[in-house]
Amino acid sequence: MGFFNILSKIFNAGKKNNTVSSSIEEQKNAKEKGDAFENYVISKFDRNFFRLKDMRSDKGIKGFYPESNNYPDLVRVIQTIVFSVRG
């Protein structure tokens, strides 16, 4: 095997790893952006009137995903306010 073939394999292998690293970085950035958005949405609801009933994150392994990924990521519920007035 020639010197340039060896260099080519080394640099191509590095590019492949960089591509995998880039993909992992992109997924990490997308997750961070999604989490930040969910936190923003949650913060916009007044705790006196809404409660957080459920909060999910999508999970999966190599093409296998739970059915719960189809459910909403956030579920907020309007709280019932009971009060009385005396006159």
Short description, anyone?
The protein contains 1 helix and 2 strands; from the N terminus they run H-E-E.
Task: Write up this protein.
By secondary structure, the protein is of the alpha+beta class. The protein has one domain (3-78). The protein is built from one helix and two strands. Strands 1-2 form a two-stranded antiparallel sheet. The longest helix is centred in the first third of the chain and has 41 residues, at 3-43. It is elongated, with a radius of gyration of 24 Å.
Number of E strands: 2
Individual helix count = 1
Widest β-sheet, arrangement of strands: 1-2
Helix coverage percent: 40-55%
Taken in chain order, the helices and strands follow as HEE
Q: Mind telling me the C-alpha Rg?
A: 24 Å
Keywords:
2 strands, 87 residues, 47% helix, alpha+beta, 1 helix, two-stranded antiparallel sheet
Topology:
Elements: H1 3-43, E1 50-55, E2 74-78
